[in-house]
Specification:
By secondary structure, the chain is of the alpha+beta class. It is built from eight helices and eight strands, in the order ααααααββββββαββα. Strand 1 and strand 2 form a beta hairpin. The termini are far apart. InterPro entries: LSM_dom_sf, MscS_beta-dom_sf, MscS_channel_2nd.
């Protein structure tokens, strides 16, 4: 074995390339090839995976591979990097200022990874950008936009990319923190002269009809999440609250718990009923 290692080192010395370049040419493709083989084996062993789960695994594998390649390159070229850094201290300081945004993006990516703020398939909102995450890398996040109207929760078909540096400056809202269920809220502005007693009961009836099949299972899920993650979960019972706004309108604050895929349909059913009730009140 020792003789084999010595012969290998002798062969490497005879190749007309520096050791750093040779190790780079060998190790980087090996890492990438290993990632591809592992992904293919994993997907073959788990053919039942949903597309979101497959996408999440692909993105995670790509980011881990990228970080591993960077780490390997740093180890291989450590001596040259150290020599270069010592001779370019002033230039490095200027580069830090010039690459401030890049450093902030990498820092935001590190914060996201450390805190597990969101992953592929999650519904998020940050700095007025709302959508479903479809791709994440070290510099930015790509989401499929929801809207354009905030009361329309369906995917618009347009993608929006934002730099991960926003995670350091703006609050992040994540809808599906409770797994496959979500507690959803929205406001309905109502003209001040319309009697809320004639509107609220009709909306509550529609809301209860749509949500009642899921209340028990959602309540059990929320209790399990509360025990597992040790934080207080909201109640699953739907409700409508009346909130003063100004001298022209008041708001009906609608709140309900539902499966993630059904929240838009339930919201639309409540809005449809409100439009019908409002029309009858305005046109007696």
């Amino acid at each position: 074995m020792i003789d084999f290692i010595r012969e290998s080192q002798e062969v490497i010395r005879q190749i007309p390339l520096s050791r750093e370049w040779l190790y780079t040419i060998i190790l980087i493709p090996s890492i990438i090839l290993t990632k591809l083989v592992l992904l293919r084996l994993h997907f073959r062993q788990h053919p039942e995976l949903e597309i979101d789960e497959k996408r999440r695994i692909v993105v995670m594998g790509r980011n881990i591979t990228l970080m591993l390649c960077i780490f390997v390159l740093f180890l291989v070229w450590a001596t040259q990097i150290q020599t270069f850094a010592l001779s370019m201290v002033a230039l490095a300081a200027a580069a830090v200022l010039a690459l401030k945004e890049l450093i902030m993006c990498l820092s935001g990516s590190l914060v996201r990874f450390a805190n597990k703020q969101y992953s592929v398939g999650d519904y998020i909102e940050i700095n007025h950008i709302r959508g479903r995450v479809i791709d994440i890398n070290l510099l930015n996040t790509l989401v499929m936009q929801i809207g354009p109207n905030p009361l329309i929760g369906r995917l618009s078909g347009k993608t929006v990319s934002f730099p991960n540096s926003l995670l350091l400056s703006f609050p992040l809202y994540r809808d599906n923190i409770l797994g496959s269920y979500v507690v959803h809220m929205f406001d309905i502005p109502v003209p001040i002269h319309l009697d809320s007693d004639a509107i609220t009961p009709r909306l509550e009836a529609v809301l209860l009809e749509k949500c009642s099949p899921y209340i028990d299972e959602i309540s059990a899920h929320l209790e399990a999440v509360q025990v597992q993650k040790l934080f207080i979960t909201p109640p699953a019972q739907p409700s409508i609250s009346r909130v003063p706004y100004d001298d022209k309108v008041y708001n009906l604050a609608v709140r309900f718990a539902a499966p993630v895929g059904l929240r838009v349909d339930i919201q639309q059913a409540v809005l449809d009923e409100f439009i019908r009730v409002q029309y009858r009140l305005l046109n007696p």
